[in-house]
Specification:
182 residues, alpha+beta
């Protein structure tokens, strides 16, 4: 039912207090979750972009249970076919999305197929703190095909996003300080 990657789109130890985010989740009467988040990440927008577009590493950026079936890189987009462990019922949910970069510093993902009615995600990345850090803004719209209580969707989505943000923060921090990661 509601699963780990109500999120989409590197397990390193870190102090979770450093990865705080302003996170707002609203669920409408149709069960569509509207997510708005603002994070400050410990690397440049270029490094943050590289982490977010390292599709082979996506399973390490999200809660346990994300499985990549395929990654198809095309000239103007990347199509990822994902399976995520359901959180409430046994099994997996499928999510096929396309990611495009309409302009530098922006990553847009849109639903193509799977167990969702709707999935849209936009990351906007801009320099912060003299260009050494990233202001990352996330907007998402998510609606599952099957019904789930709104409070449950909001709770699990918040948990998954907070874990995703901690892992994203750690991955950006690691790439920023690793001489071999650039």
């Amino acid at each position: 039912m509601v699963m780990n990657v109500l999120l989409v789109g590197l397990v390193f130890g870190m102090n979770p207090d450093r990865a705080s985010a302003d996170l707002d989740i609203q669920i409408d009467e149709n069960g569509t979750a509207t997510v708005k988040a603002l994070l400050e990440l410990p690397g440049t927008p270029s490094i943050t972009h590289d982490v977010l577009t390292d599709y082979d590493q996506w399973p390490t950026l999200f809660p346990a249970g994300l499985r990549l079936a395929t990654i198809r890189r095309e000239p103007d987009r990347v199509v990822t076919d994902l399976y995520v462990q359901a959180r409430v019922l046994p099994g997996e949910l499928r999510l096929m999305i396309e990611t495009r970069e309409p302009r530098p510093g922006q990553l847009d993902a849109h639903f193509l197929a799977g167990d969702f009615q709707r999935y849209e995600r936009t990351w906007r990345l801009s320099p912060a703190v003299n260009g050494t850090r990233t202001k990352a803004e996330l907007d998402m719209l998510i609606q599952l095909k099957q019904w789930a209580p709104h409070w449950l969707v909001a709770t699990l989505l918040r948990q998954d996003l907070e874990e995703h943000f901690r892992k994203l923060f750690a991955a950006v921090e690691w790439r920023t300080h690793s001489p071999t990661a650039h």
